[in-house]
Amino acid sequence: MPSRWAQVPSKPPLRQLSERVECFSFQLRTRQRASQGQSIFESMISGNTGDVAIGLSIKKILCGIGVEFDELFPGNFNPDDYETIIIGGGHLIRPSPHFFYDKFKVRGKHILNAAGISGSPDDLAYLNDYKYITVRSSWDRERLSYLKRDVHVIPCTTMLLDDLECLPIMPEKPSLGVHLIPDMFNKKEEKQFVDWISSLPYKVYLLPITHYRQDYIYLRKLSLKIENSVLVPVMSPTEIFTFIGKLDYFISCSLHGGIFSYRHEVPFILFNYDEKMLYFMKDRGLERYTFTNFNEMRISFDALLRDPPNYSQKVSQDMELLEQHIQNLREILPSGNSHELRTDEDSNLATYQIQNLQLQISGLEAQMRAYEMDLEMKDHIIEDLQSSVLKQIFMKFNKGFNRRVIPEGSDRRVFYERSLEGFRIIAAEGPISFMRKSKDFILHKFGKGRGNS
Questions:
Q1: Of the candidates 37, 188, 381, 401, which lies 20 to 30 Å from 25 by C-alpha distance?
Q2: 289 near 296, Cβ under 8 Å?
């Protein structure tokens, strides 16, 4: 499909509409406007909260400096139609070959906006032709050290997002937000986590962020086990950004969950499963507040409570860098008066309705999977109960049977008890031990009898 029109945020209802449907942005169609010459090329197809939030922040910058733009999608545009393409998103630049991410390696005089570098790609010499190269960490800049151009480190542009006035849910004080991803714990660690988090004196809010990982389903399962917990509904990136800012503390397995906490100066710890997590924290002297397993999570959170960091100075420095970044873009891109891009209002409404229905379908599918997990859990409980009832019936029957058929003191009772003892020896010690003990028993009993005759 061709590029998508991105609404300039001059009218609040349209801005909210654009923001609401970002998770399904790849299904929207727009008119190509090559004469304008500017475009955004982002990784938003997966609906990843971080990528969508980056897209919103870049649009905010461009609208603020009066630059019109188209939004592009991989494989569905001609780079020659645009004077400048802004390539932005998360871990976009990766080693080749890659059938999807290679499409973000666009040659020409373009702009790389606060991108993340995955691995150590060695085919990025084309970036030497770019007008402006920015990455989001010192580690990313190191990956590009062989370039002949200056590479600037700037904070993630999502720090420029604005809070919403209204939210679907507001946290109660004192509050602790938690974002976890499936399979990060084994069964033992998960049990330890549930016991630990239930013991904390906070209202626990389980917040889905990485929807593509099906974190909502996992967090729903955990919510049934954690006392005093609330499962937060699936929300848009700006809603998540705003909600995190209302929390007292946050435990995040999402990079942008950590960035949103940092921007709002909410004390947080971050799951360090990738270099992008480590270097976001390390660049700000916060690496002690990371974790890789449950024990480290507990230690880091205790450190956070004892010695919460003061984010103010670092956040101020990052915002200054972003203001300089905006100024650099203003100088590179053609200036103009910000004005609304026109589109067919009826088409916009129909598109919103389609995307809203798709969002509802995804929510219903998640609920259905959660109900299936509940049914499976209840089936196990029923099986356990049935097994317990049958065991009780058997024991009661066995006790009555023994009393009538093999009464206490009878030879049959002696034979029965010795047989049980023999089976226990075989099960616990093996047949060799059973034969040896049987031999000792026979020699002891019958040998002793012959010796006394």
A1: 37
A2: no
Domain count of the fold of the chain: 3
Q: Are residues 156 and 179 in the same domain?
A: no
Statement to judge: residues 69 and 204 lie in one domain: no
DSSP state of 1: -
Domain assignment present for residue 383? The answer is no
Residue pair 304/269 in contact (Cβ under 8 Å)? The answer is yes
- Of 85-89, 117-121, 335-339, 371-375, the one with minimum mean pLDDT is 335-339
Q: Which domain holds residue 322?
A: 4-160+314-334+347-372
Contacts of 123 (CB under 8 A, 6+ apart): 95, 96, 105
Q: Which long-range contacts (CB under 8 A, 24 or more apart) does 192-199 make?
A: 192/294, 193/294, 193/297, 194/222, 194/225, 194/226, 196/294, 196/298, 197/226, 197/229, 198/225, 198/226, 198/227, 198/228, 198/229
Radius of gyration, CA atoms only, the chain: 32
Is 353 in the same domain as 210?
Answer: no
Give the residue among 27, 33, 40, 38 at the shortest CA–CA distance from 1: 27
DSSP code string of 15-34: HHHHHHTGGGGGG------G
Q: What is the pLDDT of residues 330-352, one digit of tens each?
A: 999 876 544 443 344 444 444 43
The rounded distance, in Å, linking the Cα atoms of 407 and 405 is: 6
- For residue 381, being part of any structural domain is answered with no
Which three-class secondary structure string do you get for 234-298? CCCHHHHHHHHHCCCEEEECCHHHHHHHHHHCCCEEEECCCHHHHHHHHCCCCHHHEECCHHHHH
Distance CA 383, CA 375 (A): 12
Q: Is the pTM of this model over 0.85?
A: no
DSSP for residue 214:
T
Q: What is the pLDDT of residue 340?
A: 44
- Asked if residue 378 belongs to a domain, the reply is no
Tokens found for residue 369: 């999977």
Strands 249-252 vs 268-271: parallel, antiparallel or unpaired: parallel
